[in-house]
């Protein structure tokens, strides 16, 4: 069941009042939240819901196991626990991809080629709850805190973050779960603003960009001219932000209504002056995870500049592969890795600094063209699309003007996003409660009317 479906909206109107009424009985409230999370996950697949329950119980047991013993034994226990968590992610999401690559290699070498196929359903959100499981085991390794099985089941199935993040660390979740605000809505006006802004970004803006400019060009690139291809690349660059940022806003709003503050995941990334700053602003929870669990353990910058750049490249390759089993994601990670390395080398050895505006333009263009390999169905499709840039430009189309104006407006609003957030939250705060209900109903109806038919699911659901 999608957060965009009418069924979810109706169930939410029943779920939240009951949840808040149970705030005086924390254990019962936790059980109700757990039941809601697993029911929502089971609406996608009962088998994967069972898988998540068994997986969570094993992770809880591994955390208890890691916490026991002396430091020497704890380290190898931690490694074994990480291996278990990552092996399940590999088997469900990546095994078939690497199996086909290895079979092709063996055939080319003239060697016997047989690797068994594994027919499994990839659980929705497995990349996200696997990383969260890793933060739990590592937290247990670092501390003496006791975590109940119920709390761990809640953490890995917490429905606002279950399907596509943001990645919330186990320590942060546990502290909020046992904080004095658990079970009570936090900053309700901000939650309302986030939810409706996120719905508008996804249902209206991202869907409009996809249907009008992106989907057809990426699906049949050979049928379009150079200018159409450029507009499709620009539109997808805006679409993926509005889609994923919209999702994050929606679930952050839901988190606030449940009494949880989720980590910031976006900070106007397309205003970044360089690629390093872009990754400090884009998918922040993943960037921080990769830094803490990949880049720093490999040595970070402790072994000199040259070695640190190797670590940067490896970390970005891991980030690319994390998104999916495909060469396109791998190439996308390599592109960003090489871009970061070149940016770091330039900053280290070239004293010239570009004006902020030039840096923003160059960074935006670099990110936009890298998205082609992320979006395209295959590397061949991506190269075919890029090759169309050599085609003729074609005649002017009115819909291009709409995209140009929207792009300019998008960048201007991005610059003043924080100020606008404060102003709109203040507007919501001033509206009388009994007037707010019909206003929200009217806004919901307007969103439905403005959104095109057949709104696609969130892009990051596939990861």
UniProtKB/TrEMBL annotation:
One of its GO terms (cellular component) is plasma membrane. The keyword Cytoplasm does not apply. Keywords: Acyltransferase, Alginate biosynthesis, Cell membrane, Membrane, Transferase, Transmembrane, Transmembrane helix. InterPro entries: Ac/AlaTfrase_AlgI/DltB, AlgI, MB_O-acyltransferase, MBOAT_fam. Pathway: Glycan biosynthesis; alginate biosynthesis. The keyword Secreted does not apply. It holds the Pfam family MBOAT. It is found in: Cell membrane. GO terms for biological process: alginic acid biosynthetic process. Its main location: membrane. The chain crosses the membrane at residues 7-24, 44-66, 78-95, 115-140, 152-171, 191-211, 247-267, 329-345, 357-374, 400-419, 431-448. It is a multi-pass membrane protein. GO terms for molecular function: acyltransferase activity. Belongs to the membrane-bound acyltransferase family. This is Probable alginate O-acetylase AlgI. It comes from Polynucleobacter kasalickyi.
């Amino acid at each position: 069941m999608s957060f965009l479906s009418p069924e979810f909206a109706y169930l939410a109107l029943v779920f939240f009042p009951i949840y808040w009424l149970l705030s005086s009985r924390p254990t019962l409230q936790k059980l109700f939240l757990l039941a809601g999370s697993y029911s929502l996950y089971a609406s996608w697949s009962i088998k994967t819901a069972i898988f998540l329950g068994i997986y969570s119980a094993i992770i809880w047991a591994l955390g208890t196991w890691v916490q026991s013993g002396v430091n020497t034994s704890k380290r190898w226990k931690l490694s074994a626990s990480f291996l278990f968590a990552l092996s399940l992610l590999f088997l469900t999401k990546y095994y078939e991809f690497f199996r086909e690559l290895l079979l092709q290699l063996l055939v080319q070498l003239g060697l016997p080629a047989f690797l068994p196929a594994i027919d499994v359903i990839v659980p929705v959100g497995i990349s996200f709850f696997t990383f969260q499981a890793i933060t739990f085991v590592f937290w247990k390794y670092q501390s003496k805190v006791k975590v109940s099985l119920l709390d761990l089941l809640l953490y890995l199935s917490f429905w606002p973050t279950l399907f596509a993040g943001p990645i919330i660390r186990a320590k942060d979740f546990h502290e909020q779960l046992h904080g004095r605000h658990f079970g009570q809505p936090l900053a309700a006006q901000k939650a309302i603003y986030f939810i409706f802004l996120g719905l508008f970004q996804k249902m209206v803006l991202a869907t409009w960009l996809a249907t009008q400019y992106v989907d057809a060009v990426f699906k049949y690139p050979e049928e379009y001219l150079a200018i159409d291809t450029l507009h499709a690349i620009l539109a997808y660059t805006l679409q993926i932000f509005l889609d994923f940022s919209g999702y994050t806003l929606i679930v952050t709003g839901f988190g606030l209504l449940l009494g949880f503050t989720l980590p910031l995941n976006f900070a106007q990334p397309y205003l970044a002056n360089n690629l390093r700053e872009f990754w400090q602003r884009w998918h922040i929870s993943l960037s921080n995870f990769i830094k803490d669990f990949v880049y720093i353990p490999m040595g970070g910058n402790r072994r000199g500049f040259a070695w640190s750049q190797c670590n940067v490249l490896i970390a970005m390759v891991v980030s690319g592969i994390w998104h999916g089993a495909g060469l396109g994601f791998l190439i996308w990670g390599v592109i960003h890795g090489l871009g970061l390395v070149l940016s770091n080398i330039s900053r280290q050895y070239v004293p010239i600094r570009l004006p902020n505006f030039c840096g923003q333009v160059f960074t935006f263009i670099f990110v936009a063209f890298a998205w082609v390999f992320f979006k395209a169905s295959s590397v061949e499709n991506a190269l075919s699309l890029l090759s169309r840039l050599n085609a003729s430009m074609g005649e002017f189309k009115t819909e291009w003007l709409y995209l140009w104006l929207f792009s300019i407006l998008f960048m201007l609003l991005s610059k003043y996003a924080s100020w606008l957030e404060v102003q709109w939250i203040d507007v919501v705060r001033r509206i009388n409660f009994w007037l707010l209900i019909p206003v929200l109903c009217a806004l919901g109806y307007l969103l439905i009317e403005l959104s095109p038919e057949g709104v696609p699911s969130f892009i990051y659901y596939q990861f």
